[in-house]
């Protein structure tokens, strides 16, 4: 194997890892993956938005809590497309579900959070 081929392969791996870390860098996207992991079937966008709102209201005290409509828009236009491009979720007529890669990623960061001394809570 030539050095050039090895460099190209490593560069592709780096881009893939960077893309995955970028997708997992957002709390809302990580919560979506966790929620989908705990669901037995595909989840409709409105149900997913309501779950995200309940989770976010439980985490912070804000004067302006997100509405399910605003969260659904955010999920539809920003978060779900990024998760799909990364191969972590897929959308069908039945709703949103995890791919095998998404289930593996959700399992990995859930295990890592459980091992943190603060129980996985953000500072």
UniProtKB/TrEMBL annotation:
Residues 103-114 have a biased composition (Low complexity). Residues 84-93 have a biased composition (Basic and acidic residues). Residues 21-90 form the DUF7344 domain. Residues 84-123 are annotated as: Disordered. This is DUF7344 domain-containing protein. It comes from Halopelagius inordinatus.
């Amino acid at each position: 194997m030539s050095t050039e081929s090895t460099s190209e392969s490593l560069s592709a791996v780096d881009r893939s890892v960077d893309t995955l870390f970028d997708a997992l860098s957002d709390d809302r996207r990580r919560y979506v993956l966790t929620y989908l992991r705990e669901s037995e079937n595909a989840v409709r966008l409105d149900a997913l938005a309501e779950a995200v709102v309940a989770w976010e209201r439980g985490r912070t005290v804000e004067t302006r809590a997100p509405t399910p409509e605003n969260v659904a828009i955010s999920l539809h236009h920003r978060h779900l497309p990024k998760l799909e491009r990364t191969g972590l979720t897929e959308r069908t007529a039945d709703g949103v579900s995890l791919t095998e890669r998404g289930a593996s990623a959700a399992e990995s960061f859930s295990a890592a959070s459980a091992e943190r001394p603060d129980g996985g809570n953000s500072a």
